[in-house]
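So, can you check?
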Amino acid sequence: MMGWNRLKWFFPMLILAGAILVFILRSSVNDYILSIICFAGINIILAVSLNLTNGFTGLFSLGHPAFMAVGGYVAAILTFPVTRKAMLLPALPSWLAAQQWSLLPALILGGLCATLVAFLIGFPVLRLKGHYLAVATLGFLIILQVLITNLESFTRGPLGLNGLPLLTNLWWVYLWVVITIYVCWKVKHSSLGRSMLAIRENEMAAECLGIPLSRTRIMAFALGAFFAGVAGCLWAHLVTAITPTSFSVIMAFHLVVMVVVGGSGSITGATIAALMLTSVVEILSPLEENLGAYGISEIIISIGLLLILIYRPRGLFGTQEPAFLVKQRQRVSGEVGRSLSYQNGKGGTS
């Protein structure tokens, strides 16, 4: 077993190795391959952050693309060149038309706006469970698409915003992948994370133990929305365009597949599943074009999902992380049944 002193250095060394790999890739591969790697990184951010809601707390949200849209449009408007705003968005308020921000503050504000929206819809929507919540969040995604389409003064409606500055690169994506994984890892192995997992396994028992159900769910929902908003910003400034249909139901389906395949509650599983799904889509896309058989990737992904659900219903990792990545005393933190038993015993002796 890796001792804690060795483990303490494992993550910094892993981050350093990743930075070296990014440096090598930036200087050795073409722009097309770099863009695919960037998309894979953005998918990791999305899958890991969605795991906070769908994996840790056991909710079933399909609204992650909506938070991407909020963050993406906020950042796009803020970073759009002033001269292009004058041409494409003549009805934009003057104070906003004069703004041209750099990427970092636009990313943060986009994420915060997505968080605010998550808070606003979370209070009424998170009272629902199961397929009711899925339908409600899907409805929110559709409502937001319609709203964006009709706010032509800010979004150009169905035409969207094109010609965005190409600000996203592999370094930016890598930075936010590291931040997302680190924050979600710390959350999972904290009292808040154990509360989320307890709610997922047994709401009644969790409530009896004094865990605030609504507050915990909303915190998970809002934190996941922040990273989804950041991912939307990175995506928009990688594609250099954004439209109301950029963030669709198909995207929501792909994100749910990543969480389910990797294991609901496993950060490692979500990361690996995001890499796998991105690779499958990119490999099959040329085949679809050559054969004229569009939709093959969705069919194969759906079949793969069915097989995973049949033979590994808990996904590749379940709620667990690789044993060498956690301290001995934390290896059971993902098993909420044990956690609940421990807390019940603790309550009985008090």
Summary: Strands lie at 161-162, 241-242. Residues 12-22+31-248 form one domain. Confidence is low (pLDDT under 50) at residues 328-345.
